[in-house]
Amino acid sequence: KRIAFAIRNLIKYWKVIIIDNYSTDRTQEIAEDLGAEVFQYQNNGYVETPEELAFVQSKVITEYMSWSFVDEMWEKELLEKTIEITKEGIHDGIATVLKNYHYGIRDLTFMTYSLKWKKHSRHVHVIKKNQLECTGMIHRSLKFNCANVYYMPLDEKYYIHHLSTYNVKKF
Fold first, then answer.
1. Using CA atoms, how far apart are residues 10 and 79, in angstroms rounded to an integer?
2. Structure confidence by residue, pLDDT tens digits, 119-149
3. I need a surface site. Which of 38, 56, 68, 119 has the fewest CB within 10 A?
């Protein structure tokens, strides 16, 4: 169910590629029925590796790519603005706020906030595929070689909403 939601959210705006870890559910069937392209890749753990990034980049045929997850929702305005910016081709990456919502906790939402800069931290979520590299596990060593980043406005319609299944006990 989650894969269908993610694909429907994005497929009208760009090509969706699913990297499936040889799941035993209906991921491939659902994804292909909704118009996504599916590739099988054996990930040896929870966090992606440089080898997996290279595999994904080899499948991307567009200039830009996004490393997105099934628990993320992109607002229509964010998707439209992202398309507009990528068509210009001027920026190496596009950064926006990731707003987290935690399962079972009505009032617990948070965004990365930089005390140093006194503003919400925006992270690159769309990047020219040749500007992305990884030297270790992706969540720790993903490197964005972006000299020219477009920062989305600090307005919720330009946020990525992360619908986490974690609750505070996880942290």
1. 8
2. 456 778 898 988 877 666 555 445 667 788 9
3. 119
Give percent of the chain above pLDDT 70. 75
Task: Using the predicted structure, report yes or no on whether residue 166 has a pLDDT greater than 80.
Answer: no
Q: Compute the average pLDDT of residues 22-46.
A: 90
| 3-state SS string for the chain | CHHHHHHHHHCCCCCCEEEECCCCCCHHHHHHHCCCEEEECCCCCCCCCHHHHHHHHHHCCCCEEECCCCCEEECHHHHHHHHHHHHHCCCCEEEECEEEEECCCCCCEEECEECCCCEECCEEEEEEHHHEEECCCHHHHEEECCCCEEECCCCHHHCEEEEECCCHHHC
Task: Tell me the whole-structure pTM to 2 decimals.
Answer: 0.80
Give me the amino acid identity at 101.
Y
Question: What's the Cα-to-Cα distance from 125 to each of 40, 56, 69, 77, rounded to whole Å?
Answer: 23, 15, 11, 15
